[in-house]
Amino acid sequence: MEDCNQKYSCRTAKETLEWINAILNFIKPYAFLTNAHVTNFFTHKLWQSIDPVWLHCLRNEPVQNLLLIPCGIIQEHWPASLKEFVLDLKSLAFPREQAHLNKLFPGVNVVSLNTVLAQGMNFKKKHEVEVLSAVVSSVANSVGAQTIVDVGAGQGYLAQVLSFQYQHSVVAIDACSHHGTVTEKRAERIKKHYAAQMRKHYPGIGIPNVPKTITCHVMSIDMLKALTSMSPHIDNVKRPELIGQVADDKTSLVLAGLHACGDLSVTMLKTFLECKDVKAVVSIGCCYNLLSEGCLDIAGSQCGFPVSCGVKSAGISLGKSSRDLACQSAERWRSLEQDAGLHNFELHAFRAAFQMVLCKYYPEIIKSSPSIGRQGKALRRQQQRRILQSSINCDESKHSSMPETISHMQELYLNPHMSESKTDDYSGSALHSHELSCNGGARYNETAAASKYLLFEKFTQSGLSRLGLKSLQETHFHEIWKEAEPFAGLIGPYWSLRAALGPLLETLLLLDRLLFLQEQGSSLEAIMLPIFDPALSPRNVAIIAKRI
What we know:
It holds the Pfam family Methyltransf_32. Residues 124-293 form the Methyltransferase domain. InterPro entries: Methyltranfer_dom, METTL25, SAM-dependent_MTases_sf. This is Methyltransferase domain-containing protein. By secondary structure, this protein is an alpha/beta fold. The chain has a domain at 101-201 and 208-232 and 251-326 and 502-547: 3-Layer(aba) Sandwich (Rossmann fold), CATH 3.40.50. Helices cover 50% and strands 9% of the residues. It has 25 helices and 7 strands. The protein has helices at residues 13-27, 31-34, 52-58, 63-67, 80-92, 101-104, 115-118, 123-143, 157-165, 177-201, 221-226, 263-274, 309-313, 320-325, 330-335, 338-361, 363-366, 375-386, 394-398, 406-414, 428-437, 441-466, 474-488, 491-499, 502-518, and strands at 147-151, 169-174, 212-215, 253-261, 278-286, 524-530, 541-547. The longest helix has 26 residues, at 441-466. The chain starts with 12 loop residues before the first helix and ends with a strand.
């Protein structure tokens, strides 16, 4: 799909390479951002690498404006250089607006799933399966494929819709044996429903097929190629539209993957090229952080990035931090409410301050790159549970003294409108009006700062416990937070600017895959297409290729 306002195109290998080179030239000066990790914000003083004029401007911006930066939305009062940075990013990133599928796949019909097929799916998954199944079915029909292989099938949602609703022969493969068992049990339940319906409305027609499931712990090109020797056919449900479309008795396959993780999406593309029985591939990737990298000089390497000759010749290496960053979704940032965005920034501040604790008091732990889990989610759930309790109005607060217990202070912290100190103000005029209405700004700032410190202490105690480390004296927590707090207000601007590079890095990874296919010449056609609503499914770009 081409955006009429898009500066770059990827219709040909030459155009795709030009786009890739433009991205590489743009990101080189910003390696200090793409290679950084917000965990080290305080320990490495990361804010010092940002233009101080940009920081001065952004630290006073309402949080909602910061959340719009990754989408390429600017404010008129910003410095010209900052506006240019954000707009250049937007012009280089692949557009994510959902494509008009009917224009690209004539006759495609996205059908809403019935309650039987949709059982167990959340709204996001239902949307993805509805759209992708229609696209894959259309592609399979266009190449006369006998079988569709659902790669990384998970619980088999896509495979079952392709089998029961579109009546394709389907093989579902996944590395997890539990997923295979779940897929089979779910398919049998669906089969009973469809069998009853067919006996009632179409007597004499056989029982529908269920997807065949395969568990494979190592998903490799050789493994996928081995599937071509399998030829599962539909035994009972006949498909007249395919009769005569297959010229010989060979198996013809379509590979499909809904968010096939890490290297698996790339493995699908390589299998498509190496195995002539695979007539088409529809791949939607995810988990770029799990891609293998660094095999530029190894002939026949199976690394996930880079795969195209064009990108390999550039000698580019992204690294894990940059690949992590490619997973950031501009649409998700835009959809955050102000309070959620604010809370997100605060959690990053806690984690970065916790890193200071580790560096100072547990230096041996730093060498092992510790992971303390998703404490942010736990704190966010706490916030949601306490949101009703934190609706204590200002009239009540006027008649009470400053809370002395941790639980009361946490309630104040978890009230989104009372969570920012004077030097960490993202909520703009609404925050100031709240200050003035509640017994004076000085008391507010003192209470907010104290409650924020207590949350940091709780976060740190939990992190130390998860790492199996002995706790510290309270004075040590105070010492760390006192050092970090004056700069905590800069995390929001820094993280927003860094996240804005995420869609550009994802574009680079996807264009590398597209170019890899385009470099094979005129024997195939390949396109890159956003097929999902990006607000529902941020990883919405499909790479679709078929032999011609």
